[in-house]
Each structure stands twice: as C-alpha cells, then as structure tokens.
Amino acid sequence: MSIFRTLAFAGISLSLSAGIAVGATCGNNSSGFDKWKASFAAEAKAAGVGQRGLKALASARYSTATIKADRSQRSFKYSLSKFMQVRGADTIVAQGRKRKARNAGFLSSLEKRYGVPAGVLLAIHGMETGFGGFMGNSAVVSAITTLAYDCRRSDFFKPHAIGALMLVDRGMINGDTRGAKHGELGHTQFLPGNALRYGVDGSGDGRVDFYNQADALASTANFLRKKGWKPGKGYQEGQPNFKVIKQWNAATVYQKAIAIMGARIDG
C-alpha cells in the first residue's frame, strides 16, 4: 500500500544486523538482482529461513511495477479533505457501519480481547483493500525482495523480505501469493515481517491466514494492542491512541483519516 508504512520489527532486524553489514549489495535497476539474491540467500539462511523460503527467493523476479509505484506515490501529499475524497471516505464509513452491524458479535469480541474499537479496524480494512475487494495483484515475494534489493530503503525492507520467506516456510504464503506493490498482503495489507510477528488466528481454525477476514482483523487488533493501544482511551488527534495509529502508517493524512472514519463508523 505505501512506503510510509513504519512497521519494521525488532526480532528479525536484530538477527540480520551482523549479516547486513557485510552482505548483499543493493542496486538501482534489475541488472544486479540475481547476484544480490544469491548473496541475500546466505543472510536469509543465517536468519533461519528454510528450503521452501530459499526456493521462493531463488524464483523471485525483479518487479519493475513495484519500483514504479515506490517512486510515484502522490496521495499522501494531498490535503486531508482531498485525501479522504480520493480514498472514498464516505463509502468506507457507510460500508463500515453495515459491516459493524452485520458482524457485531465478532467485532465486539475483538474489542473485548484487544481493546481496539470496531470503527478503527473497519476504517483500516476499508482504506487498505476496500474491505477485501482488491488485495493486490503483485507477487508478494518478488515485490518485497525487489524493495530489499533497491538502494532507496534496503535496510527497512530486508527484515520484511526475511519475514516473507519465513511465511513461505510455514506454509502461510507461497511464491505466487499476490499482494500490494510493496509486498503487503491480505485484507489489511500487513508487511510480511509484521504478519509473521503479529498474526493470530481469528477464525478458530487453528491457522493464520491473512486472506481470511477474521484472521486479518484479529491480527490488526493484535498489532495495535502490542504497539501500545490503551483500551477505553480516545484515538483522535491529540488523544492517547492516536500515536498508535501512527505505528500502522507514518503518513499524517492517513492517520487523521483513519481516526475520523473510525469515529464515524463507531458513532
């Protein structure tokens, strides 16, 4: 969804810290990608990636579409009113209210467990994928490894590339799984490292599947709670939980939009 996502996670970052310093060299075009993959495979293996993940890495392709999207984001520079208009805020709120009424029991259970109101989760779900209407058509592994290779923000995306390969190892995704241009996956567009760290089973089937709505919403609630969400406290700008929304996306206009839409859905 966005380069503004701020969700690097500590565990994999620490395990990679030694390897990154002397590891694969980044690049700014496709010419060095295959050589980089071969070098990065050693880092991935050292971080605990197994054979399935390494095979997915070997099959990954440089994504020109991902690089183009990374260089041409505009909506985060809009004013708040323009941003909400472009993103379809009124439609998200209307659909969010209907979904809240239709799934009241489940959403209430999430709020009871994690403290995150339905409106916030539904606003994120609506903003990210139109409530699952479009979850992306880019190969997750190829997209995230392309960004890990690209010099612009290689260190940020490397842990998420490792995360994606670990998700493959665990059978949670495969080399062909589709997501957003920046490698985000599922209903609420988790970056792969965060999917690995914060994913929970919301449907009760014993597995975590981010393309399952219940799992994605529960995982989003879990992420926000682990990032410091305070149950019962406000989430508008200036209130305690607004800073937690910042952990989901670093763009101020996005944060404000989620807070406003969430309140309208909950209202």
Q: What can be said about this structure in brief?
A:
With 267 residues, this protein is mainly α. 59% of the residues lie in helices and 1% in strands.
Explain what this protein looks like in three dimensions.
Helix 3 crosses helix 10, helix 6 crosses helix 8 and helix 9 packs antiparallel against helix 10. The chain is 59% helix and 1% strand. It has a two-stranded antiparallel sheet with strand order 1-2. It is globular.
List the helices and strands and how they pair.
Blueprint: H1 10-22, H2 33-46, H3 51-59, H4 64-71, H5 80-87, H6 89-102, H7 104-114, H8 118-129, E1 138-139, H9 140-149, H10 154-169, E2 178-179, H11 192-198, H12 213-226, H13 242-248, H14 252-266
Antiparallel strand pairs: 1-2
Helix pairs in contact: 1-10, 3-10, 6-8, 6-14, 7-12, 8-14, 9-10, 10-11, 13-14
Radius of gyration: 18 Å
Strand order of the largest sheet: 1-2
Please state roughly what percent of the residues sit in beta strands, choosing from under 5%, 5-15%, 15-25%, 25-35%, 35-45% or over 45%: under 5%
Mean pLDDT: 92
Distinct helical segment count = 14
Largest sheet: 2 strands, antiparallel
Q: Uncertain spans, ≥5 residues at pLDDT below 50?
A: 6-22
